[in-house]
């Protein structure tokens, strides 16, 4: 009878040690705790592995010094924690998939929209005019927008006067001083502000249509769009949506 018990204990201990080795833990005695529910590399035991580990531990324990109730409760709490972590991992994984799909769907709705983005090339709209804005870094006593044709000829100068810091919109109907439509497909825009008696150039923003939405390679990559006449811009660079 003693031999049988010893053999059973040895087999149970071998099973226990094998399971502990699977999660990166080491044990050389039958009193090894099943609380080693996670490995040193962060791996998590499956439910079946945990139950097998706890069962093997009970078989391998010293019958004259069995675990008390508090130890058993602690191990069951570990089991509950392991199960909760597995469910949390699954939930987070599903959420990441849903977010990625929603990002693609949202980005697709931007295609065809006319947006305000940093750029100096303004495309003429259906009526031949252009529009945009100047993002003033500080208050200006005077703000001037210059619109030029592709050959460098000035088509229009717009004096916007004094303005506070922030976006200051401008528009032009595409007509010359005589009221005739120039008819170019695009124009170059530049701007200058005067503040404290000093004049300096400022970068303009132009309205242009989005022609494509890129799909990010990973969930952490920025969403980018192709804007006609401007190129690739990040979603964070879009300052307004016109229509």
Explain what you see.
- With 243 residues, the protein is an alpha+beta fold.
- The protein folds into two domains: 87 residues, no CATH class; 91 residues, Immunoglobulin-like (Sandwich), CATH 2.60.40.4070.
- It is 32% helix and 29% strand.
- The chain is built from three helices and twelve strands.
- Strands 1, 3, 6, 9, 10, 11 and 12 form a seven-stranded antiparallel beta sheet that branches.
- Strand 4 and strand 5 form a beta hairpin.
- It is elongated, with a radius of gyration of 35 Å.
- The N terminus is likely disordered.
Keywords:
243 residues, alpha+beta, Immunoglobulin-like, 2 domains, 7-stranded antiparallel beta sheet, 5-stranded antiparallel beta sheet, 3 helices, elongated, disordered N terminus
Task: Figure out the total of helices.
Answer: 3
Number of self-contained structural domains: 2
- Whole-angstrom Rg: 35 Å
How would the global form be characterised? elongated
Number of strands: 12
What is the oligomer described by this structure?
single chain
The parts where pLDDT drops under 50 for at least 5 residues are 1-5, 25-42
Q: What is the mean pLDDT?
A: 78
For the record, the CATH architecture of the largest domain stands as Sandwich
Q: What name does the CATH topology of the largest domain carry? A: Immunoglobulin-like
Helix/strand structural class: alpha+beta
Give the termini separation: 87 Å
SSE order, as H and E? HHHEEEEEEEEEEEE
CATH class of the largest domain: Mainly Beta
* Percent in strands: 25-35%
Percentage of residues in helical conformation: 25-40%
The main sheet comes to: 7 strands, antiparallel
């Amino acid at each position: 009878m003693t031999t049988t018990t010893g053999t059973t204990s040895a087999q149970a201990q071998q099973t226990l040690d094998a399971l502990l080795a699977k999660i990166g833990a080491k044990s050389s005695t039958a009193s090894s705790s099943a609380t080693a529910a996670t490995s040193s590399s962060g791996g998590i035991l499956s439910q079946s592995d945990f139950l097998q580990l706890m069962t093997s531990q009970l078989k391998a324990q010293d019958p004259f010094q069995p675990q008390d109730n508090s130890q058993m409760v602690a191990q069951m709490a570990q089991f509950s924690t392991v199960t909760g972590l597995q469910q949390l991992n699954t939930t987070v994984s599903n959420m990441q998939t849903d977010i990625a799909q929603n990002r693609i769907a949202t980005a697709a709705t931007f295609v065809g929209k006319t947006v305000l983005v940093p750029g100096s090339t303004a495309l003429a709209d259906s009526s031949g005019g252009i529009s945009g804005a100047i993002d003033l870094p500080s208050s200006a006593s005077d703000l001037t927008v210059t619109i030029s044709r592709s050959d460098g000829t000035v088509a229009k100068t717009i004096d916007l006067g004094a303005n506070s810091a922030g976006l200051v919109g401008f528009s032009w109907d595409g007509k010359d001083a005589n009221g005739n439509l120039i008819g170019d497909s695009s124009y170059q825009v530049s701007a200058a502000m005067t503040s404290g008696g000093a004049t300096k150039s400022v970068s303009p923003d132009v309205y242009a249509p989005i022609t494509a939405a890129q799909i990010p390679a990973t969930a952490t990559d920025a969403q980018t769009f192709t804007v006609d006449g401007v190129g690739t811009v990040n979603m964070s660079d879009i300052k307004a949506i016109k229509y």
